[in-house]
Amino acid sequence: MALSAISWFAPVDGYCERLEPGFWAEPINALTNAAFLIAALGAALLLARRKNADRAAGLLVGLTVAIGIGSFLFHTFAVVWASLADVIPIAVFILVYFYMSMRRFLGLPVAGAALLTAAYEAASMAFPRLWRAIVPADADPVGSSVGYLPAFLAMIAIGSLALARDPASSRRLLAAGAVFAVSLALRSIDLQICAAVPLGSHFLWHILNGLVLFLLMRAAILAGPAPPHTARSTETGT
Predict the structure, then answer these.
(1) CB 182: neighbour CB atoms within 10 A?
(2) What is the value of pTM for the model shown?
């Protein structure tokens, strides 16, 4: 059913920092979205130093800018349409990066990478319902962050699988996964610490996720548009 005109502007309040309606009711959560723009700038500068054209990595940079803008809109307007501006660029980034990972880090052909990306999307959509069916609500350690668990698991799995064929990329992905684990934990405890820490911890999720996205983009850029084994074969003349 299509969202009504009223529902598009329905307020959304799910963070410690927001105590009332208003554009600047979450100033720290809003302003820390600059971390995404800084990450995009860092990746863009790294990309500019590379000699080979890498449009896919350029797309990741653009999506990171969109993530920063969308999250800023959500933490200022805090309504339904702004929440979509927040989550849609994130979802697109995850899918694009998953596909790129299949190609760059695991060396899969286009068809195989596309098939696994579709399978990942189907699994990630089903995951929250499965999680809530297994984990009791009063014992759920992640709460509303459950939707990000598939991305974390994929990051660790791909990083581990890439170890044998591309150790450098493997280390970069696993490092990003380690930072993301901390970031995810901080997002998960935001509402639980409101009484002790009125500001909450969501702003740290922004800062650390900016670092996560930069690490992921750096890994993709350094691996290059071709599968790693192809690049190494070219360099060694084999």
Answers:
(1) 14
(2) 0.91
